[in-house]
Specification:
Structural class: mainly beta
CATH topology of the largest domain: UDP N-Acetylglucosamine Acyltransferase, domain 1
Strand content: 25-35%
Strand order of the largest sheet: 6-9-12-15-18-21-23-24
CATH superfamily of the largest domain: Hexapeptide repeat proteins
């Protein structure tokens, strides 16, 4: 693949995205980052995030590699760029699934039949997005998390490492599901849910 890929974010997630992109066939990668300089896994960091528009030339792909969902949304809303879909070759994507622009699916993940994944989502290493799921824009499913069939994950929501969401459950917009939680009923927007079965943690409450 002869296209240049510009990765916005040179942290750990950025490196994982670059690794997937190289395995897809990209050969030339440039990072942009507001806090890092020099090189990242051998590729140049060419300046801050706001330099992205200057690199647009009709032959370049872009992807946002920022794990913070709200920051990823803010950056995406500030730029009108050709956003690439980055899918690690070991991920299993049904031909009947849909992936939105800017979405990243990492190694060993599965996105099954009739699932719809929105724009700029992250389906992380080994995560399972089952049949008929809907992930709204800027949602994230962490490593080894599993979503049963017909789950809906609201925009900006985050499913933690190893969490399980029962089939036919809706995770509200902006929710955070803690690592290892088991969600057996729908959650309210903006809540933080932990435990087995998952319960809503109020601010300041002990876990």
């Amino acid at each position: 693949m002869n296209k240049l890929l510009v990765i916005l974010g040179a942290g750990g997630h950025g490196r994982a995205v670059a690794d997937a992109a190289l395995k897809m066939g990209y050969r030339t990668i440039v990072f942009l980052d507001d806090r890092a300089a020099g090189r990242c896994i051998g590729f140049p960091i060419a300046g801050p995030l706001d330099r992205a528009e200057a690199l647009r030339d009709g032959k370049t792909d872009f992807v946002i590699a920022l794990g913070d969902n709200r920051l990823r949304r803010r950056v995406a809303m500030g730029h009108d760029l050709p956003w690439a879909r980055i899918v690690h070759p070991s991920a299993q994507i049904s031909p009947f699934a849909e992936l939105g622009a800017g979405t990243v699916v990492l190694a060993g993940a599965a996105v099954n039949v009739c699932a719809r994944v929105g724009r700029h989502c992250i389906v992380n290493t080994g995560a399972v997005v089952e049949h008929d799921n809907v992930l709204e824009d800027f949602a994230q499913v962490a490593p080894r998390a599993a979503l049963g069939g017909s789950v809906r994950v609201g925009a900006l929501a985050q499913i933690g490492i190893g969490a399980v969401v029962k089939n036919n459950v809706a995770v509200g917009m902006g929710c955070v599901i803690g690592a290892g939680a088991v969600v057996v009923k729908s959650t309210e927007p903006g809540g933080v849910y932990v435990g087995v079965p998952a319960w809503r943690r109020e601010k300041g409450a002990a876990v």
